[in-house]
Specification:
five-stranded mixed beta sheet; Neuraminidase; elongated; mainly beta
């Protein structure tokens, strides 16, 4: 069993030294004992136990001629028989030759065969030509069709910035920034799906010009494009509610109830993200609320802020529901803001705070530390009120749209959540908007709905790891604003 450890965490460079594989005393710069069959590159720690199925390719190789002179009994030179190593039997060698079979031992250099051993070519030159010379011949190289692995197999790894500048279609690596396997499809890097997550985003509630209060839930597949599909209905019709979710469940909570109802609601609705269907009332907030926001870890759902500049952070167990209880407090009361998370931290950004109806400030808290209040995280580059959209993967938190003191915004900015404070311009939406909602996978963020001069059903998307402007994704089922959204693979939860 051959174990190859070349380029593991570093370049493999040898200068002025002999390298032996299968031998402790190499006589050449690179000497491989026994049999080596390959036309492929290996990076990492790989164990190959069997391989086969070479496909013919043409490679040009020049081999020196070894001349054997044959003389007649009279001593006159009649012919020269030449023998060339590195080839199977070819016949006459007067012109360029070819052969059909590979030898047992190949020496591979930069993905090309540099020499072949244990095969021979014989032929006759024209009588009287005694000078040593060379012949350029065509060698049938090979590509690997099948590999059987026993035990451990490691693919190359590294962050987003360490991807190969020139990638070959089918290249597989582990992305350490996204914590997932990915492959190059010839155009862009794609992530493998795992843990049975659907990569689904859901949007719930909201208001528009014809339906001031809504109970509709839409869903999309975030890693594709296209129009949203009806998911079901919440138990109440509201706008200004919050949303959060883990890998399997989404919660919609709070909001202003439809006309004729008694103001705001404290209800928490549950939907199963992968299956669809209507919401189920499975718990209550501490009190009724509107213009709130939410986020979640894989275990806990959080309600943050409220219209009356409430600074409470409430939480509940997503698996069981029930009555929400007090978790901690923001640095100041907030409303019409939005939240995002890493795998361990919760953040709330923008909205209204005492004395500033269009805030820049961002709060952060540890989602596992009940009773520990949020702390100031830093400031965004823009003031963003009136429900900017927010979402995240495990590395970056992204803020989109909202309203500065006078105008709706089309700008986006992001922050690296493991650090603090420094937001950076990301790009621009296709149109200025406020009151939209965002959702994400580990790869892509989407923003849906919102309003400026009119309500919209537009969905746009960006690749979170790459700066740039948003692109069209599709449409929600209806125009809406001031609604909630979440996904099953945001903030470090997902395998997408």
């Amino acid at each position: 069993m051959a174990k190859i450890r070349v380029g593991f965490s570093s370049d493999f460079n040898v200068s002025g030294q002999k390298v032996g594989i299968g031998t402790a005393n190499p006589t050449a710069l690179l000497e491989v004992a026994e049999t080596a069959k390959a036309d492929f590159n290996i990076t990492g720690v790989t164990t190959l136990t069997s391989y086969g199925g070479f496909v013919a390719q043409n490679q040009n190789i020049t081999e020196p001629t070894v001349i054997k002179r044959t003389t007649s009994k009279s001593g006159t030179l009649d012919s020269i028989n030449e023998r060339e190593t590195g080839f199977t039997e070819l016949g006459s060698v007067g012109n360029s030759q070819s052969f059909n079979t590979l030898s047992e031992d190949l020496v591979v250099e930069d993905g090309k065969i540099s020499s072949i051993h244990n095969t021979e070519m014989y032929g006759d030159t024209t009588s009287g030509k005694q000078d040593e010379h060379t012949h350029a011949s065509h060698v049938s190289a090979g590509s690997l069709e099948q590999v059987s692995v026993t035990g451990h197999f490691s693919v190359p790894d590294g962050g987003i910035d360490e991807r190969p500048e020139i990638a070959i279609e089918g290249t597989v690596r582990f992305n350490t920034d996204l914590n997932t396997l990915e492959f190059f499809n010839g155009v862009e890097w794609k992530q493998f799906t795992y843990n049975q997550r659907s990569g689904r985003g859901v949007f719930g509630g909201g208001a528009n010009s014809t339906t001031p209060y809504g109970n509709m839930i839409d869903y999309i597949q975030i890693m594709s494009t296209g129009n949203a599909i009806d998911f079901g209905d919440m138990t109440v019709t509201v706008y200004g509610g919050g949303a959060c979710g883990n890998e399997t469940r989404a919660n919609f909570f709070g909001g202003r109830l439809s006309p004729g109802s008694s103001g705001y609601t404290d209800r928490i609705d549950l939907v199963t993200i992968a299956s669809g269907g209507g919401g189920i009332d499975y718990g209550d907030l501490v009190g009724t609320t509107v213009h709130t926001s939410g986020c979640a870890s894989s275990i806990i759902g959080f309600k943050v802020g409220a219209y009356n500049l409430d600074n409470d952070i409430e939480f509940w167990q997503i698996a069981t529901g029930g009555q929400a209880i007090d978790f901690a407090h923001l640095t100041a009361g907030r409303h019409t803001m939005q939240c995002f998370t890493s795998s361990t931290r919760g953040f709330t950004a923008g909205g209204a705070v005492p004395g500033d109806n269009r805030a820049r400030s961002v709060d952060m808290w540890n989602m596992a530390s009940k009773g520990v209040d949020a702390q100031d995280f830093g400031d965004m580059t823009n003031r963003r009120g009136e429900n900017p959209a927010a979402t995240s993967n495990s590395v970056r938190g992204l803020i989109m749209g909202g309203m500065d003191p006078d105008n709706s915004l089309d700008s986006m900015e992001y922050v690296t959540m493991s650090t603090s404070g420094s937001f950076v311009n990301f790009g621009n939406l296709t149109t200025a908007t406020r009151g939209a909602a965002g959702a994400a996978t580990a790869i892509r963020a989407v923003i849906g709905g919102g309003t400026d001069t009119a309500y919209t059903n537009t969905i746009e998307y960006v690749t979170i790891a790459s700066l740039g402007n948003a692109k069209d994704f599709g449409d929600l089922t209806v125009e809406r604003s001031i609604h909630g959204a979440t996904s099953d693979s945001h903030g470090g939860l997902g395998g997408f």
